[in-house]
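Hey, can you fold this one?
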Amino acid sequence: MPSIRRDVTLLVCATLAALPASGEAPAETPPTATGTPSITARSLRAEASWRGLGDLYWEGAAWTARGEALRGETPAEAVPAFEEALRCWRAAGAAREEADALVAIGTLLNNLSRNRDALGRFEEARALARDLSAPDLEARALNGVGESRAQMFEAEAAFDAFTELLALCRRTGDAAGEIEALGNLGYVYLQLGDYLEAARLFERALEPARRHGQRSFEATLLNNLGETLARGGDLEAARPHFEEALALRPEGAPQRAYAMVNLGSVYRQTGDARRAIGLFEGALASFRAAGNRWGEAVALDQLGWASLSLGEPDRAYAFHMQALPLHETLNDPLYLVPSLYGAAQAELKRGRPDQALALSERAYTTIEAGRDRVLSRRLRTTLLAPWRLIYEGHVDALMAVHRARSDTALVERAFEVGERARARSLLELLADASGPGGDGPPQDMAQPLTMAELRARALDDDTVVVAYLLGDDRGHVWALSRDTVVAHELPPRAQIAGLARRAQELLAARPGRGQPESAAAEAQDVLAELGRVLLSPVAPQLGTRRVAIVADGPLHHVPFAALPDPAHPGVPLMVEHEVVSLPSVSTLALLREAASRRAPPSRTVAVFADPVFDAGDERVRPGRRQPAASTEPTPRRSLHLTSSVRDVDGDSQSGLGRLPFTRREALDILELAGKGGARRALDFDANLAAVRAPDLADFRFVHFATHGLLNNARPEASGLVLSLADREGRARDGFLSVEEILKLRWRADLVTLSGCRTGLGRSVSGEGVVGLTRAFMVAGVPRVVASLWSVDDSATAELMKRFYGEMLGPARRTPAAALRAAQLEMRKTRAWSAPYYWAAFQLQGDWR
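Sure. Predicted structure:
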C-alpha cells in the first residue's frame, strides 16, 4: 500500500511540475512518438488512485492538476475539475487549499464572463484568507473581486477593491501585487473615460513590470495603454502599443485574441477595414474555441462595425444580431449596449429608421440606468464620455423617424436626449452643493428636465435657446422657444471642429503684431463660414430675441457674439442680439432655483487685483526682497500651482509676471461702486485668506483681475493665482484651485474672471468644459464672465470699466445686457474695434 501512495504522489508532483509558472501561457507540448501520457491523463490516473485510497487531500491535488492542465485551452472544462478539488479540500479541512481553489474557479468564471458567480467565489476566498492571516492569498482574492466588479461595470466598487489591494500590497511589501493593483486601477479609469489618469497609472506600472520580467502583465499594460490612447483619439500613438502587446502574447494564449481585437480596431478606425477583419476573424475563432462568450460577442461587434465602414450594412446588422444573444447571457444589461448601438446604426444605413429607433432606445435606457450605479460624482463625470456615441446615435434615430413622419414630438424628444448628454455631473453637483437642509435646490432637480419643464422654468418670450449636438457622421442644432422647437442637421463634427479651431486661432491673434495683412480677411471669411454653418439654419427663429447658446465640444471655444448675424451679413450677432452661454438649459433652471432660496447679498463688489507673485516684487519691504526664482519651500497646497504653471509655460513660475493694468482696472471698478459697499483687495491683501473670509459671501459682485491657469491634465488643479508672498517676502499659499472653489458657498450674483483664458478648461465628452466657470456655479454663483483667449491688459481694463459702469451706473443693466453694451462701445472705438479686444469675454449662466 505505501508503494502505491508513493507512486501516485510522484505522479501528482510530476504533473504539477510540468505546468507553466503562474502568469505564463501554457507551453505547447504535443504527445511524443513514444506515447507518453498527457498531463490530463496522468492527473486522471492520480485522482482515481487517491479516491480508491480514501485520501481526500491528495485526491484534491489530483483534481487541481487536472484543472491546471485544462485551464489554458478549455477553461470551461477546467471549472468542474477545480470544483471537485474544492469539494476535497473542504472535506479534508485544508482551508488554504480551499481558498486557492476558490480563486482559481473565480478566475476561470471571469474569463468565461460569468462575473457574478466569480465574485461570490472571490469573496469566499477573501474571508478564508483573513481567517488564515494570509495576506498574499487575500491579495489574490481582492484582485479577483475588483476584476469581477470592473467587468460588471460596477466601477465604484471595483475602484474601492483595487485601492484596498494597493494598500495591502504596500503594507506587505508585495512589489508584484502593487504593480498589478496600479494597472487595475488604471483599467477602472479607462473604463470610465478618464484617459489621463488611466495612462498615468499604466505608465507607472509598466516600468517595474518590465524590470521584474513580468511579460504577461507587461503585455496587459501595453494593451491597456494603447486602448487609453485610442479612446483619447490618438490612434497612431496607440498602434505600436497594441503591436508590442500582440508580440508578447504567444500563440494560443487566451489574451492574444484581445490584443488582436484592439489592433484590428485601430486598423478599422484608420481606414484599413479589410486588414482589421482578418484580425477580428482570427480573434473570433480563438474566443469560440475557448468558450469565451463575451470575447466572441466583442469580435462579432467589431466585425459589424468594420462591415458598416465598408458600406455593407446587411452584413453589419447580421454580426451585431449574432452578438446580441451572447451578451444577453452575461447577466449585465450594459454588455448589450455595443450590439444594440451597432445594429441601430446598420438599420439606419439600411433605410429602416423605425427599427433603428427601437434598438437605440434600448441602448439609451440601458446607459441611463447604468449611470445611476456609479455613486461617485467624480467617476460619473467621466462615465458618459465613452458612451457619448449612444446618445448621438439615439438622436440620429429620432430625427430619422421625424424626417419620415414630420412629428414634432420626436424633435422634442431628441432635444431631451441631447440635454441628458450635457453637463449631467454639473447638475448633480449643483443639487448637492447645499447639503441636507441647506438653501440649495431640491435633490429631485438633479435630473435633466423634460421639454415642458424647461419651457416653464427656464425660458421667456424674449429668448431663444440654440443648442448643438455634434456627431461623427452628422450634427444637430435646435432652436427652442416657449412655444416652438425646430431642428436641423449639421455637417460632421470634424468639419465644424476645423472651422472652430481656425476661427479661435485668428481671433486670438493680436492685430498688427506679426500678423500678415491677409489675416483680417481670412478671419472674416472663416467667421462667415462658421456663421453660415451654425446660425443660418435657425435664422428665422432668432428675430431680435436674446440668443442663449448651448455649445458642444469644439463650439465651447467659439465666441458666438462675434459670428455674423444671418439676418445682417457682416454684422456681429451681438449688435442686434444679447448673447449668453449655458452649460445646459436644465442647469439654468437649477441655478435660478438655488438663487431664489438664498437671501440676497447686501454689499456691492469685492475686487481682487494686482497680487504679489514673488519675493522679488518691488512692493516687498526693502531688505527682504529675494530673486524671483525663490528657493523657499513650496507650501503643500501650492503644488497645484506648480503643476498648472508648468502645464501652461513649461516652467514653475516663469509665466507669473505682474499685471500692472489690473490695478487701474480695480480702481475704476471701486470708484464706480463707491466706498460704502465695496471691498478693496490689492497687493498683499489679494490673498487666499481674504477669499476664504465668510463675509465675502455677502457681496453681489466678486471680481478677480489676476492670472488664471488652466491645467488640462488635472482640471481640479486649474485656478486663480493670488498673492504668493507676504510683506516680508515669505512664501505663502496663494493658489485658489478649482478643488477649493467647489467647496465655497457664496450668494454672489456674478463672478468676473478678467484673467487670460479663464473661460476654458478640460473638455469632457458628455459634460462640456470642466474648469473655473463651472466651479463657481457649484459655489452658488448663477452667472460668470470669463475669457476664451489672452487679451491685451489695457483693453481688458477698458472693457471692464465700461462693463461695471453699465451695471453700477444710472442704466443699472443686468450683467448680460451690460456686457453687450460694453462690447458695443469697444467695437465703436477705433483702437479697440477688432474682435480680439472685445469678443473673448462671454457671460455663462443666467441672463436675468
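Residues 11 and 42 are 7 Å apart (CA to CA). Let me know if you want another pass with a different chain boundary.
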